[in-house]
């Protein structure tokens, strides 16, 4: 489902009328958190979550944290509920044998970087990871889930979108009010280029009572140069327009773009239509890493993947929190 435009506009009539339903949603989140057991599993748990619904950059953040912990000699495992997959778990994701239908696309992507577990019951997934040798748990999502105690709660926000109109679903894009969520968090990470970061700070800076780190997503080199390349691009991520903008920044000649719903299945009908269109346009089909893992195996050679990684110019706010929980 595509987010309605009014979620990211100044509060108006529609968001005001939906405000009471947003209050009900927020109350439900509050009750669910109050009933949680907050289990401990014997190793630090780092929750990478958000206050907004939809994509904010949690998965690239989890990957970057895994690499940061590895540099410290800490063996981290990821635990995720496997959104879009049908496995209950706990089960360790095997990227060569599992499919996105089983584990969800984000779990497959994470599994290429660190041992990853899919578990609808996060506490059970964390215990399985610890039994398998995890020295730390990176909980992908789960900020509004109280199954596990969090030693570090890191909230990720898209600097472009910020916290939208500041209202709770369905009146706005939030799972809970900003002040409520940030009061439980240890650190905020905003992701976006410098201009977006400046706008985010101007709008929301006075409402951030916790340490604030900044990062941006940077594309990795591909086997085929994108500069001047005719491209048909598709993306089924939280904000597809960001991917298309990245391609423009790399010099791609965007002949056609297809903004799909987040996690949208890549059916034979859909892919046949896009491949036919690309052939007519003389264009290369290009997509994101997250979408690529949902492609049928036989189509992957026909679609170029453009991977992105989180770059954090100043790790000091994050490292300070890691020093706290790992006492190093």
From TrEMBL:
TM regions (residue ranges): none
Pfam families for this protein: LpxK
Annotated Gene Ontology cellular component terms: plasma membrane
GO terms of molecular function: ATP binding; lipid-A 4'-kinase activity
UniProt keyword Kinase present: yes
UniProt KW Lipid biosynthesis keyword: yes
Binding site for ATP: 52-59
EC annotation from Swiss-Prot or TrEMBL: 2.7.1.130
Enzyme type, top EC level: transferase
GO annotation, biological process: lipid A biosynthetic process; lipopolysaccharide core region biosynthetic process
Keywords recorded for this protein, A-Z: ATP-binding, Kinase, Lipid A biosynthesis, Lipid biosynthesis, Lipid metabolism, Nucleotide-binding, Transferase
Pathway linked to the protein: Glycolipid biosynthesis; lipid IV(A) biosynthesis; lipid IV(A) from (3R)-3-hydroxytetradecanoyl-[acyl-carrier-protein] and UDP-N-acetyl-alpha-D-glucosamine: step 6/6
Family annotation (HAMAP family): LpxK
Known role: Transfers the gamma-phosphate of ATP to the 4'-position of a tetraacyldisaccharide 1-phosphate intermediate (termed DS-1-P) to form tetraacyldisaccharide 1,4'-bis-phosphate (lipid IVA).
Protein name: Tetraacyldisaccharide 4'-kinase
Organism: Roseicyclus elongatus DSM 19469
Gene from which the chain derives: lpxK
């Amino acid at each position: 489902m595509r987010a309605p435009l009014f979620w990211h506009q100044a509060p108006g009539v529609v968001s005001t009328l939906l405000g009471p339903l947003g209050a009900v949603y927020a109350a439900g989140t509050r009750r669910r958190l109050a009933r949680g057991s907050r289990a401990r599993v014997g190793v630090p748990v780092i929750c990478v979550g958000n206050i907004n619904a939809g994509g904010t950059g949690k998965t690239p953040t989890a990957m970057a944290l895994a690499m940061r912990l590895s540099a410290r000699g800490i063996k981290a495992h990821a635990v995720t509920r496997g959104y879009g997959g049908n496995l209950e778990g706990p089960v360790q994701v095997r990227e060569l044998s599992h499919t996105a239908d089983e584990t969800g696309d984000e779990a497959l992507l994470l599994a290429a970087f660190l041992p990853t577990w899919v578990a609808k019951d996060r506490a059970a997934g964390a215990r399985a990871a610890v039994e398998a040798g995890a020295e730390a748990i990176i909980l992908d999502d789960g900020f509004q889930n109280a199954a596990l105690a969090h030693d570090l709660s890191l909230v990720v926000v898209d600097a472009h979108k910020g916290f939208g109109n500041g209202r709770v679903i369905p009146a706005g894009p939030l799972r809970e009010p900003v002040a409520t969520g940030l009061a439980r968090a240890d650190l905020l990470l905003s992701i976006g280029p410098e201009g977006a970061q400046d706008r985010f700070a101007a709008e929301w800076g006075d409402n951030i009572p916790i340490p604030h780190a900044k990062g941006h997503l940077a594309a990795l080199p591909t086997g085929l140069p994108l500069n001047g390349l005719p491209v048909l691009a598709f993306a089924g991520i939280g904000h597809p327009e960001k991917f298309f903008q990245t391609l423009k920044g790399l010099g791609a000649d965007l002949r056609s773009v297809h903004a799909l719903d987040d996690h949208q299945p890549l059916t034979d009908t859909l892919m046949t239509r896009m491949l036919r269109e690309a052939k007519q346009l003389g264009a290369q089909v290009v997509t994101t890493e997250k979408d690529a893992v949902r492609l049928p195996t036989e189509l992957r050679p026909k679609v170029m993947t453009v991977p992105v990684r989180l770059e954090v110019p100043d790790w000091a706010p994050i490292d300070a929190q890691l020093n706290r929980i790992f006492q190093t």
